[in-house]
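How it folds:
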Amino acid sequence: MISVGTAGWSIPRAAAHEFPGTGSHLERYSRVLPCAEINSSFHRPHAVKVYERWADSTPPSFRFSVKLPRAITHEGELRRPGPLLDAFFAQVAGLGSKLGALLVQLPPSQVFNLRVAGTFFTKLRERYAGPVVCEPRHITWFDKKAEELLVLHRVARVATDPSKIQAALRPGGWTPDLAGPDEASIVYYRLHGSPRKYWSRYSPERIQQWSSEIAALPDRSDIWCIFDNTASGAAIENALEMTVVSRRPRSR
């Protein structure tokens, strides 16, 4: 499965014709694209009724990924997360079966600490068995010990663009080739825009390159491709382009 979407679901005026019909932005967006990443959860908590309303506004097959609160990842630096995780999971329960993945984004200053990270992912997995992806941004998270920890807890490492860390451009951690035939696996791309982060629109050639990379992944992979270059409205345009390209038959 290949799910293409954007961070949030705002529809810029220039792309409004691609999302016809009545209703909220989310209702119109979800008729065209199959998933969205909720970023606002990073900045502030949402009541369970808000998540329920979002779930009720979308088709049965629609899925959300949800970014963990900054109080856990940035301010708390993954330490003593129990009460905050409990509160977060009580809120996102409102999505029900439409909760597709959890995103753990770490600050660029967050150095890998085996004890802290191990305790955090243990506590996270005690509360949630579904897909989890992690977007680390410090070089220490790309060594062997960090990779082994992600695999141990069945956490996929996000493939992100742009990045000064070469390994960050490719998926890692709990990848589909490590999962057994009956085990769920996820590959998650977060594409922020390049050269100007959050603003630049990717060229058709770059979209085609990612599409070819995705086509080479195992068929059983649950693939997410989220465009985060939302500041200029480019994310919607790139998502629509990727959707068209990814629907073409695979060559293998």
In short: Residues 114-127 form the longest helix (14 residues). The chain is about 35% helix and 20% strand. The beta strands are 2-7, 35-38, 63-67, 99-105, 132-135, 155-157, 159-161, 172-173, 186-191, 222-227. The radius of gyration is 17 Å.
